[in-house]
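Saturday, quiet lab. Running sequence design on the structure tokens for the scaffold JK sent over.
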């Protein structure tokens, strides 16, 4: 494995551990652990990996299908307890479709509580998957127009920034981060999408160190200009929450991840363990949220803060390895095909 990918797997592990610590440690400590930092790392990594693994020979539909199978089956299976609980609690078919299909609906707002449930999605951390799908959709569209890596990069970057500017200009910005409001407007207008552009930009730049290949960073001047416009005119209406997140979460994370991607391969027992955590980070990300939600609903944490925190973190790490091996890493289509073949064989079908 190349050193940059090995190190980025370590980054993935660090990002997952930050999110887990922020959700499972006692509030007195967790409030000083910004989970958004982990999300910024994940979004940067997504942009980087999409260009790093780009294959011109791969059909856009095949690309999108692979991303869907990588994300959705594991999400549904791991989140099933929360999805079933939400089905019992809410009477809204729309909310369930929103949760199962990971499609945001225009009228969702946590404050309105219009679906008789507090969380904007059954598994609270799954809001990030909607942002991921938004990025994949634009990336796939670019790939469909012209299956060339540089073109897809520029198309995706310009599309994300243009949609962001138009969304802010015509519809405004609610000023909150992703986990509070989930709608097409809230997603397309959010400044955290710039992390996808930054990840793609860094991959292109780190691969080609000549001056002419440093132009991708110029694209970041566009969203930064939007921020300046917000300060001097009422055109864009971008709020301080997203600006603070961009300046003090996103940009530092970009620098940190970029530095690790170009540094020597990190070795040693601790880094190897974090690298292993990076391998099952997606399962860990989803499952710890299931556990955290159950603990919250049962009101266990206020009574036994530290024992509950230590047990839940240990369980999250241990069970996530199992989930990665038997759910996340399983090819669902092949599993179904093999099961169907065995069924036909057992029934005596031939041909």
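Result came back. Writing it out in full:
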């Amino acid at each position: 494995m190349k050193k940059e990918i090995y190190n980025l797997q370590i980054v993935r592990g660090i990002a997952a551990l930050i999110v887990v610590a922020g959700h499972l440690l006692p509030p007195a400590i967790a409030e000083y652990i910004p989970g958004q930092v982990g999300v910024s790392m994940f979004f940067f990594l997504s942009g980087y990996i999409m260009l790093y693994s780009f294959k011109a020979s791969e059909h856009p539909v095949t690309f999108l299908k692979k991303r869907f199978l990588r994300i959705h089956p594991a999400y549904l299976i791991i989140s099933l307890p929360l999805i079933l609980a939400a089905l019992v609690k809410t009477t809204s078919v729309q909310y369930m479709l929103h949760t199962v299909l990971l499609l945001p609906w225009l009228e969702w707002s946590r404050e309105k509580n219009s679906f008789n449930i507090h969380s904007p999605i059954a598994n609270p951390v799954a809001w990030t998957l909607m942002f991921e799908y938004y990025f994949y959709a634009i990336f796939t569209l670019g790939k469909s127009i012209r299956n060339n890596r540089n073109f897809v990069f520029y198309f995706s970057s310009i599309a994300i920034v243009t949609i962001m500017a138009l969304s802010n200009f015509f519809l405004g910005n609610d000023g909150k981060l992703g986990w509070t409001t989930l709608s097409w407007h809230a997603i397309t207008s959010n400044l955290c999408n710039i992390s996808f552009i930054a990840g793609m930009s860094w991959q292109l730049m780190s691969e080609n160190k000549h001056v002419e290949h440093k132009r991708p960073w110029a694209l970041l001047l566009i969203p930064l200009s939007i921020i300046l416009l917000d300060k001097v005119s009422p055109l864009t209406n971008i709020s301080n929450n997203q600006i603070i997140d961009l300046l003090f979460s996103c940009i530092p994370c970009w620098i940190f991840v970029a530095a690790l991607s170009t540094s020597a391969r990190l070795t040693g027992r601790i880094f190897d363990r974090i690298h292993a955590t990076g391998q099952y980070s997606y399962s860990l990300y989803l499952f710890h949220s299931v556990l955290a939600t159950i603990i919250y609903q049962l009101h266990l944490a206020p009574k036994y803060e530290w024992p509950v925190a230590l047990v839940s973190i240990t369980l999250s790490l241990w069970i996530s390895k199992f989930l990665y091996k038997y759910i996340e890493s399983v090819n669902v289509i092949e599993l179904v095909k093999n099961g169907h073949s065995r069924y036909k064989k057992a029934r005596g079908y031939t041909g």
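Notes for JK: The chain has 16 helices and no strands. The two ends are 42 Å apart (CA to CA). Ask whether to fix the surface positions before the next round.
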